[in-house]
């Protein structure tokens, strides 16, 4: 059977786990991952968790790594024969990871990440045999520090508490919080810069970049992510001014008293009180257009529904941009393969943030 769990492999980093992780992995399964880095670089593997039922010579369940370029093998590993260090530095750009199981009763399975030698900062996040290779280093530097987060952190097991504006409890899974904060794209991973600051009384929950954080109570320290060096003011957090709003259509509501109320494009500004913009009922491929007045660097978007007498909100959307208002380019995100679908709101009350990684440089946004 297929013993592969959550897997995201890219040329520069990735994450892989056994099926059902952190629950017990299945009986009689096998999974083989082939990691391939760019020529001239070597692979670094971080063992977040290797918990396979013990057996003599790891005969019943095992993790084995093979380097075909040098003929070197690492392992087999299981619970009574774990890796000697949480970080394995290879001399190869190609590594095969083989996991297999026979009959067993216990074991969480395995969680492994990798990056290339171009990103040695991943090792800074793995002192000791911690539960995840993306947990907060302990002891953690008091000043600004940088860690490399591999691709595929969004769907790993573990909780985050807080939001991009307040920061996150330092018990949060660090790289998962970085995806929530919008400083890296889950499909690519990347270097993150953050600081450990004084904790706060309450960390509010938020939905951002496809992740829901939890509401958390007081902690002594918190993590604050920075989009630029944390010794500077993050200028990219400014709210851009919209010069003109336009839309494919808008709804002319006639209330019970026969009065007309227009849900026009200008009412789409997030700070607007009362009703918002709404497309004409039944309209297909509706769009809202923002003119920023001049070409700007756009790093993200915040959406909210309208609770004014109606529970209206947008659940998903595409984004396009233009420099002249005539020629439009769909936003495809870091993968570049297909138009990105952004996850919107689930109610008309809360705000939902989505980051543009890479940013959009344009005057017009749809």
From TrEMBL:
Membrane topology, from the record: Single-pass type I membrane protein
Molecular function per GO: signaling receptor activity
Protein name: DCBD1 protein
PROSITE patterns: CUB, FA58C_1, FA58C_3, LCCL
Keyword Transmembrane annotated: yes
Domain LCCL positions: 147-223
Keywords from the named record: Disulfide bond, Membrane, Phosphoprotein, Transmembrane, Transmembrane helix
CUB domain span: 4-117
Disulfide bonds: 4-31
Compartmental location: Membrane
CDD domains associated with the record: CUB, FA58C
Start and end residues of each F5/8 type C domain: 230-366
Organism (species): Agelaius phoeniceus (Red-winged blackbird)
GO cellular component: plasma membrane
Segments passing through the bilayer: none
One Pfam family cited in the UniProt record for this chain: F5_F8_type_C
Superkingdom, taxonomy of origin: Eukaryota
């Amino acid at each position: 059977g297929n013993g592969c769990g959550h897997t995201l492999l890219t040329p520069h980093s990735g994450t892989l786990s056994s099926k059902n992780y952190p629950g017990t992995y299945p009986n009689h399964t096998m999974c083989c991952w082939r990691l391939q880095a760019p020529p001239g670089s070597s692979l670094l593997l971080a063992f977040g968790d290797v918990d396979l039922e013990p057996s003599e010579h790891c005969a019943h369940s095992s993790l084995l790594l093979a380097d075909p370029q040098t003929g070197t093998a690492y392992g087999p590993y299981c619970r009574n024969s774990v890796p000697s260090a949480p970080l394995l530095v290879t001399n190869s750009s190609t590594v095969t990871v083989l996991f297999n199981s026979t009959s067993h009763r216990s074991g969480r399975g395995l969680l492994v990440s990798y990056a290339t030698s171009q990103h040695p900062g991943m090792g800074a996040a793995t002192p000791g045999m911690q539960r995840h290779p993306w947990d907060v280093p302990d002891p953690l530097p008091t000043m600004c520090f940088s860690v490399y987060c591999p691709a595929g952190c969004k769907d790993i097991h573990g909780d985050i508490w807080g939001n991009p504006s307040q920061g996150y409890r330092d018990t949060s899974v660090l790289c998962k919080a970085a995806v929530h904060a919008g400083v890296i794209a889950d499909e690519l991973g990347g270097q993150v810069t953050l600081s450990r600051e004084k904790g706060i009384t309450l960390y509010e929950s938020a939905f951002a970049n496809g992740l829901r954080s939890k509401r958390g109570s007081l902690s002594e320290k918190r993590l604050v992510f920075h989009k630029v060096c944390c010794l500077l003011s993050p200028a990219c957090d400014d709210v851009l001014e919209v010069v003109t709003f336009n839309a494919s259509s808008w709804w002319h509501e006639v209330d019970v008293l026969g009065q007309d109320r227009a849900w026009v494009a200008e009412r789409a500004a997030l700070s607007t009180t009362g009703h918002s913009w709404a497309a004409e009922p039944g309209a297909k491929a509706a769009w809202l257009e923002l003119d920023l007045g001049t070409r700007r660097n756009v790093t993200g978007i915040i959406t909210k529904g309208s609770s004014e007498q109606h529970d209206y909100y947008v659940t998903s959307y595409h984004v396009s941009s233009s420099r002249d208002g005539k020629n439009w380019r769909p936003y495809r995100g870091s993968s570049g393969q297909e138009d990105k679908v952004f996850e919107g709101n689930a109610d008309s009350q809360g705000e939902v943030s989505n980051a543009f990684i890479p940013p959009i440089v344009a005057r017009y946004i749809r």
